[in-house]
Amino acid sequence: MTKIESNKAHVKKGQKELFTFLSDMNHFALLLPSDKIENVVTTDNTCSFRINGMADISLVKKSEIPNHQIEIESGEKTPFKFTLNICITEETDHSSHAQLIFEGHLNPMLKLMVETPLTHFFNMLASKLETVF
Fold it and tell me: Could you tell me the residue ranges of all domains in the chain?
């Protein structure tokens, strides 16, 4: 099992507001880098896209712990199984932290190829989250 933890994003919104935003998978399109992603399709509970030159990725919201955590799992289009947990912690009434935690079933060869790009991708999503608000 490969585990990747993003940097913590400091967001200038309260925990509940951040959770509400991230619970709607339609908002994931706002976090994705438009220069590296194409064919984005979202619904309330799913998001799929193609990483330029790499693979199709589909995300499906699996469960939630209100205001604290969103669990997302890989969908049918994704070439390997994984979960992505978004953990949200309150800092003050008007600010919170979010961290993405990826756990994937990657064979050793695939791990060598994708671990660094995935780490950069999740850190970029965390960074983008700070600028959306």
Answer: 2-132
Burial class (CB in 10 A: 0-12, 13-18, 19+), 108: exposed
CA distance 111 to 108: 5
Q: pLDDT (tens digit, 9 = 90+) per residue, 36-49?
A: 899 999 999 999 99
The model's pTM is: 0.93
Is residue 93 classed as helix, strand or coil in its secondary structure? Answer: coil
| Strand, helix or coil for residue 113 | helix
Q: Which fold has domain 2-132?
A: Alpha-D-Glucose-1,6-Bisphosphate; Chain A, domain 4 (3.30.530)
Coil vs helix vs strand at 36 = coil
